[in-house]
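Progress report, Aim 2. The chain analyzed during this reporting quarter is listed below.
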Amino acid sequence: MADRIGMPPETPPETSSSSPPTLTSLVGGIVEDLQRLIRQELQLAKSEVQQEWEKTKLAATSMAAGTAFLGLGGVLLCFMFVYLLDAYVQSIPLWGWFGIVAAILMLFGGLLLGIGRAKVSQINVIPPQTAETLKELTEPR
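Predicted structure tokens for the chain:
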């Protein structure tokens, strides 16, 4: 029994004449190896695509949440700062304070969107190992 722990797998009994392998058995072995290699490469590609998809989902979720909070916070802060500044500095009209506060919030929002864009640029649509393998396979020899 080859499946017992500690037992070596059984080897087929040797024939009485030690003849070299036939061409058919050699080609069959090569085909099996090629099939196994292709299956492994497809599994690697699938794994890499899944990893990149997870990075994409995380970046998109982060950017969407950041944008939503930026919008809501911007509106609330805008009103608060405008009325606060208008109460203490009355030399600028209320509409002027609205413009100043909105400009500051837009700069901050642009900074956050720039950070999200940098994260998106780190995502590889084509997995690097798979691309390298395909490149090697398609290069003429």
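The two ends are 46 Å apart (CA to CA). The chain has a mean pLDDT of 82. These observations will guide the mutagenesis work planned for the next reporting period.
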